[in-house]
Design brief:
The structure holds two protein chains of two kinds. By secondary structure, chain A is α+β, with helices and mostly antiparallel strands. Chain A contains eleven helices and 14 strands. Chain B is of the alpha+beta class. Chain B starts with a strand and ends in a 16-residue tail after the last helix.
């Protein structure tokens, strides 16, 4: 099937073109869409992209940092304002992929990909979509990301952790430094008076989308971040997960190892 | 099928070609321009054999929409040698037996050049990170890593030519 491509200088025009053509896909960095083109995917025949410079910007707004959808992983790593996300961006593909893959595109990566989105989920980021919806909670966005009319992501707003050490990220790979995720864990673990206050934990590769580990979060609330304090959380580490079997690991294996990797992340012994 | 005209620099020479909408850069380089150094491996961005530099940055050309390189500077392994004089990296790969079947070699060389252009004195870890997106199924990587470190030690400079005492032909 012949492929068509359309490029728009304004994001609004691109959004209109995307929503009015069911046979279209939005092209961010190419690492998702071009794979489908190369594989002969027949479900779309039009590539839509935008050169709107606002998509490439990183802005600070109060305690939030707003990341344009076309900001690449390499730009995240290079940005001083995004230092807290460096650990997540650094494990996306190899250097070439990081020069191409975008923050907006990662929101659409299917399991076992989407490690950066797992980090954004633990930080309770919100997603701004073309057409006025500017604060869609990322967890809600992930459940509707493939629905029609297709959403066009403009930016992601991320609350900056007050304590940089409170954000932790662990991607378990069989091959280092570049490998596909066996399991990814991101956690925001703010403390008050030596006890966890509003902890947030997200898993990647443990379902069709990155998911929040709600039972783990409840079990960690008010606890100390030590072996005794995290024991109840480890006991419910697999609650709510629906991992897949793929070439990296079986569903059984992912369930078996999830508590061990969560323990390593929480105690800071992972790596 | 609709075609679009694009212009870009390839290894310092201006190229003007018509590209199909949706066509990837790798196809354009190999079919339209005739530069066969970037290889078609997985076409999924996983093997790195099609790695080229765009404006000095590593990318995988199989996942790059060709029309997006309009006005850009593209570098491939074909541009490394200066006439009969091999690039320091090519010399080091040859001296260190860093190529066996050779399929990954152009991508490895380009990734290594991107590293050394930014970091002329890389650590072993820096080299491993730089080629982490390039798969090799022959060498076990060690000769490649050693060759890149050797090239760095032999005086790689920003122009990419020997400035040290290494062998030249």
């Amino acid at each position: 099937m012949p492929m068509h491509s359309q490029v728009f200088s304004q994001i609004g025009e691109a959004a209109h073109a995307l929503s009015s053509n069911r046979s279209s896909r939005y092209f961010g960095g190419g690492t998702l869409v071009m794979r489908q083109v190369n594989a002969g995917n027949q479900s779309f025949d039009t590539i839509i992209r935008s050169t709107d410079p606002s998509l490439k910007q990183v802005q600070i707004s109060g305690d939030q940092v707003i990341i344009g959808a076309s900001v690449t992983m390499s730009q995240v790593i290079a940005s001083r304002d995004l230092d807290f996300l460096k650990s997540a961006a650094s494990v996306i593909g190899g250097p070439a992929i990081r020069n191409m893959a975008t923050v907006g595109g990662n929101l659409f990566a299917r399991s076992p990909y989407g490690d950066f989105t797992t980090a954004l989920l633990a930080l309770e980021a919100t997603v701004a979509l073309s057409g006025g919806r500017s604060d869609v909670p990322i967890a809600d966005f992930l459940t509707q990301r493939f629905r029609e009319p297709k959403p066009l992501v403009i930016s992601v707003s991320v609350p900056r952790p007050r304590d940089g050490n409170a954000f932790r990220f662990l991607k378990i790979m069989r091959v280092k430094p570049m490998g596909v995720s066996l399991m990814t864990i991101a956690a925001h673990l703010p403390q008050s008076g030596g006890r966890l206050a509003n902890p947030r934990v997200a898993y990647g590769s443990m379902g069709d989308t990155p998911i929040r580990a709600n039972a783990v979060e409840r079990a960690l609330e008010g606890k100390t971040l030590d072996a005794q304090g995290i024991a109840p959380a480890l006991a419910v580490a697999t609650e709510g997960i629906t991992p897949r079997t793929d070439s990296i690991a079986s569903e059984w294996y992912r369930r078996e190892v999830a508590p061990a990797h969560l323990e390593r992340l929480l105690l800071g012994t992972g790596g | 099928m609709a075609k679009k005209p694009i212009q870009f620099q390839l290894n310092g020479s201006s190229k003007s070609v018509f590209v199909e909408e949706g066509q990837n850069l790798l196809e354009v380089l190999r079919r339209e321009v005739g530069d066969l150094t970037p290889k078609l491996g997985c076409a999924q961005g996983a093997c790195g054999s099609c790695t080229v530099l765009i404006d000095g940055e590593q990318i995988v050309s199989c996942l790059t929409l060709a029309e997006t390189v309009e006005g850009a500077s593209v570098e491939t392994a074909a541009g490394l040698a200066n006439g009969p004089t091999l690039h320091a990296l090519q010399e080091a790969f040859m001296d260190g037996f860093a190529a066996q079947c050779g399929f990954c070699t152009p991508g490895m060389l380009v990734s290594a050049k991107a590293l050394l252009d930014k970091n002329p004195s890389p650590s072993r870890g820096d080299v491993i990170e730089a080629i982490s997106g390039n798969l090799c199924r022959c060498t076990g990587y060690e000769p490649i890593i050693d060759a890149i470190l050797a090239a760095a030690g032999n005086g790689h400079n920003s122009a990419g030519r020997y400035s040290g005492s290494g062998r030249q032909s």
